[in-house]
């Protein structure tokens, strides 16, 4: 990783530290009312993940750790890892109040092997806005391979690159039209954002507002995993999101949101299962 990438990732770390109090108080996460970690999962994620009781599960880039708690509730020995000190402290507090036995570790995802003392896992989980903060997917995939036991599984439930191209959150002045606003294929360069508001409701971010994202197409993700020696077992695309990105979206029986039948049916999320 280059010195410039190091600088950008440190900026992201500071930005996530600054975002954390906003997210803790937001209606989006709803932590001031009740904790329902299952609402962040599609039913097909649980189908793909299979039985987790008694398994060692690592959640990379866990932020507030809601999904990590869901793994613990299903009987897994769950560990969450995130680069933000504020996020890790908040996640530990949330898990404690939920009575969930979860361990949280603060580390850059690229340093996860060392930060976890070489421990290996049955399942590594990541996604829903994680990969776009990583400049080097080859290094990430190699790290994941080291974190997995033989026959261990990686599961990615991530926003589809097409959604990122449309804009997962509308910028100021943007309408709700399905327009390509950003690259689908990454160019190896970062997209710089200076946002006073995050993807949630709530007050403006105080302090570090700069962040950097990298676009990764599905081909790049698959290529990085295959290059690290993992074999792809399943790849599915979904037209639902856990929140209404566009005002015309309709709530489905799953509790998630889908564009109306009058709109083009496009993938907004994908699930990828790979095995070491």
From TrEMBL:
Q: Which GO terms describe its biological process?
A: methylation
Record bears the keyword Methyltransferase = yes
**Positions in coiled-coil regions:** none
Q: Name one GO molecular function term.
A: methyltransferase activity
Classification via InterPro entries: Methyltransf_12, SAM-dependent_MTases_sf
Residues spanning the signal sequence = none
Known SUPFAM superfamilies for this protein? S-adenosyl-L-methionine-dependent methyltransferases (SSF53335)
Positions of the Methyltransferase type domain: 58-154
Protein name as it appears in the record:
Class I SAM-dependent methyltransferase
Provenance organism: Streptomyces ureilyticus
Question: Taxonomic lineage per UniProt?
Answer: Bacteria, Bacillati, Actinomycetota, Actinomycetes, Kitasatosporales
